[in-house]
Specification:
single chain, mainly alpha, two-stranded antiparallel ribbon, 15 helices, 75% helix, 1% strand
Length: 445
């Protein structure tokens, strides 16, 4: 059971994460419709598409996931530090709002890989403030700790990978010429850190798996899994200092990070799955499969496998690339959704509908699967990335079918994601209203 004094802090991070996901979903609707055949003709503004793409990627891949990591880190802190936690959350909320409002100040969208940006001081300041808040929360010293050793090790390694990504960006910044074109400059700036931070997110997913399985089955000590989690951050630490060895932009620089993500990022996954299966047993897993968080773990693992398969098939810079990372991101999100349903009772809430929650998990997973298939198919046909409307140049029936499948899957996944947020916050709102009503009745008596 989560300590009562931590409830407000955890709810605060949940609200931040939910806000980021909600805005990212709204922008994703624009992106999906702008690439849907026929409908895309209504979206003739490349600026709207590019700005929406920047904010969608940054909110869904950075703000949302880092806020979830901060929420999980709160659960394993062994001392109550409300002032520090409040400061961190205020920084993160402020940074997020600045990023969301930054299009008002103008600035061109730079559609680089990993961390696209708006060339606006408001956007840059907001991103910096948010990152400071997250790092302060994750690395503020704690004299004691809570939670299982496995969860603490996973969160610590995920945090270290995030810090390593920041170091890689800072070292790259110190060596890149400011005379480069904007696209090339930001591509090199975030190339190393963008690859490293993926390891942080995968470790976050492992933490979600472990938290769910431990809560349902009460695992014994797992020394092998513990060491896997502890050592998982080592490749990221090595990657942090690569800009000191290879010049940013060199072939060696690009190849190192590509190989790091291709081989080191996913390697802990089968080891974690093996350890969890060995600790629990297949029969026990099957016997409790009606448990919604456990279904989320299973679908998360299946989506991760799909993402790895698509990643292995990538040939060139086409829509197979977003197919790969949408599958992996979908796997991470499914694990987080499972944790959301798991910790609601720990916070004193009761789901408004378990049947609706079970439907939501399947709806989101099915939508992501169709989205990934549509993107991979379109990439195989040669459809370009980061363009919308007539710029896509769709001509054949197969291209129209593939992009229609992508759009249908994207809209279904968005419906599932909106439904998750609706279930979460409606549950919290109803309980709060009930508590206020009970307090009012007690005062009248």
């Amino acid at each position: 059971m989560i300590k009562q004094s931590y409830n407000r802090q955890i709810r605060g991070w949940m609200v931040l994460a939910g806000f980021a996901l909600f805005v990212a979903n709204c922008l994703a609707v624009v992106l999906v419709l702008s690439r849907m055949p026929v409908v895309s003709e209504w979206f003739d503004s490349s600026r709207v598409f590019a700005t929406s793409l920047v904010l969608h990627v940054d909110l869904s891949l950075y703000i949302w996931l880092m806020a979830v990591l901060a929420m999980l880190a709160t659960q394993v802190k062994g001392e109550h530090q409300p002032k520090i936690d409040r400061l961190c959350r205020y920084l993160c909320f402020g940074g997020t709002f600045l990023m969301v409002l930054s299009p008002i100040a103008g600035g061109d969208a730079v559609l680089t890989n990993y961390f696209p940006v708006l060339r606006s001081p408001l956007f840059m300041v907001g991103a910096g403030i948010y990152l400071c808040g997250i790092l302060l929360h994750l690395f503020w010293p704690s004299v004691s700790s809570l939670g299982s050793p496995l969860l603490r090790a996973g969160i610590r390694s995920s945090s270290i990978c995030l810090l390593a990504a920041v170091v890689a960006v800072m070292l790259s910044f110190s060596q890149i010429s400011v005379d480069l074109a904007a696209v090339n400059y930001y591509e090199l700036l975030f190339w190393g850190g963008g690859h490293i931070v993926q390891q942080s997110y995968l470790l976050l997913m492992f933490c979600c798996w472990i938290l769910i399985v431990e809560s349902i089955f009460k695992l014994d000590q797992q020394p092998l899994l513990l060491w896997i989690l502890r050592l998982a951050a080592l490749p990221a630490l090595a990657g942090a200092f690569v800009p000191l060895v290879y010049a940013p932009g060199s072939v060696e620089f690009r190849d190192f990070y590509t190989l790091l993500m291709r081989y080191a990022s996913w390697l802990p996954a089968p080891l974690v799955v093996f350890c969890l299966l060995r600790a629990v047993g297949v029969r026990k897993l099957v016997s409790r499969f009606e448990c919604i968080p456990l279904q989320a773990v299973s679908l998360s693992l299946a989506m991760l496998v799909i993402g790895l398969i698509v990643g292995a098939l990538i040939r060139g810079d086409n829509l197979q690339v977003p197919a790969h990372y949408h599958a992996v991101t979908g796997a991470i999100n499914l694990a987080i959704m499972g944790v959301g349903y798991l910790i609601l009772p720990e916070l004193g809430y009761r789901l408004i509908s378990e049947r609706l929650a079970a439907l939501q998990i399947k709806l989101y997973a099915g939508g992501v699967f169709l989205l990934v298939v549509g993107l991979a198919w379109s990439g195989h046909l040669g459809v370009s990335r980061k363009v919308a409307g007539a710029e896509q140049g769709l001509s054949s029936i197969n291209e129209h079918l593939a992009m229609s499948l992508m759009a249908a899957g994207g809209l279904i996944a968005l419906l599932g994601s909106f439904l998750f947020l609706g279930i979460l916050f409606q549950t919290m709102r109803l309980i709060k209203q009930s508590a206020l009503s009970s307090e009012y009745q007690a005062r009248r008596v």
